[in-house]
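Long-time lurker, first post.

We've been arguing in lab meeting about whether flavin-adenine dinucleotide would sit comfortably in this protein at all. Half the group thinks yes, half thinks no, and nobody has a model to point at. So I'm putting the question to the forum: if I give you the sequence and the SMILES, can you give me back a predicted structure of the complex? Inputs are below. Any interpretation is welcome too.
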Amino acid sequence: MTAKLVDIRQSRTSLEVQDGQTILDAALAAGIPYPHGCRSGRCGSCKSRLIEGKVELLQHSRFALTDEEKADGLILACRALPQTDTAVAWLGSDDDDVQPPRRLDGIVTHLDDLTHDIKLVRITPEDRAPLLFNAGQYAQVGFNGVPARSYSMANWHGYGGLEFHIRRVPGGTTSEHAHSALKTDDKATLEFPLGSSSLRLHHSGPILCIAGGTGLAPIKSIVESALAHGMKQPIHVYSGARAERDLYLVGHFQALARRHPNLTFAPVLSEARSAQHRGGLVTQVVAEELSDLDGWKAYIAGPPPMVDAAMDLAFARGMRKEDMHADVFFTPEEPPGSVAFE
Ligand SMILES: Cc1cc2nc3c(=O)[nH]c(=O)nc-3n(C[C@H](O)[C@H](O)[C@H](O)COP(=O)(O)OP(=O)(O)OC[C@H]3O[C@@H](n4cnc5c(N)ncnc54)[C@H](O)[C@@H]3O)c2cc1C
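Top reply:
Settle the argument with this. Predicted structure of the protein with flavin-adenine dinucleotide, as tokens:
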């Protein structure tokens, strides 16, 4: 097999896609701002029309792409391996501006422990210029001598640099480096901004945010941006953690909720009892409290099982697919097609 040419209509570019490479991966590597979210066939943000040619589709969820949509000529760019030269057009999902991704050099300007295993890392571009991105997007962050990984921005505008919340994964190359070796003034590289699970400013219905662990980083960005833009609809934030010591930013969100009566914030502990906080899986608590999600938008971020459960729940409660924006913190070692779907 040889590389295939893929014509991406909106970018007016013909791209070489290597064997085993998805259309989305090739497009992002070429700097094309292809709309995308989970990159693992779960969210549908990269849904595209196959105009010409043939692709093999890797495993994906039925929410992301239904059999009817496939029969109608739609594909997921993150799951599509071109079998012939191909032409595609992304459907596009939103009216917000999308900045093309670019690479830049930065400096670590601030480090702080948010919990026993979550570190705040602030990176400022070397030229100190403000950075444009949409709340909820992420960057590929690289430090000296360790591979770059995806981390979501936790602030909502790029004045004063980018804020990341990095959880230590035991044995993890880059997160361990961030926790044990990283110092202020260290150099960093950024490929940025990435992802399409960002705040939709024109939505006027209620908003549901569900975070698992450091999934709270993009949710913080989205909520702060929504409030700063004067969005007045109900915004419900659920933040799932194992135990009290894994919770963070509780005081920050409680203070925001006091200033903005349309915001509620509920920490949920899955493995510990607490007089103050709800107990159970975050998705169980949402299921008990919200019965009808028709007309709502959801922003969901965290580990794959939590995101899958939250998406199942939201759709079962009447949420429309176009209102679901999910960021799956999948690991780079997870091979395409290995994700378990119903
Ligand atoms: C879009 C996106 C946004 C993300 N945003 C954030 C963020 O804001 N904050 C954050 O902390 N992480 C985030 N992640 C996860 C992050 O990119 C890395 O996967 C994580 O930091 C581990 O990298 P590592 O190099 O330390 O581990 P690796 O060296 O890649 O992995 C070492 C071992 O740990 C396992 N592993 C890797 N990641 C995890 C995990 N998350 N949980 C359990 N086991 C794991 C691997 O399978 C492997 O066995 C995000 C991921 C994606 C795709």
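For your lab meeting: The CA atoms of residues 136 and 198 lie 4 Å apart. The chain has three domains: 4-90, 102-194, 207-338. Whichever side wins, do check it experimentally.
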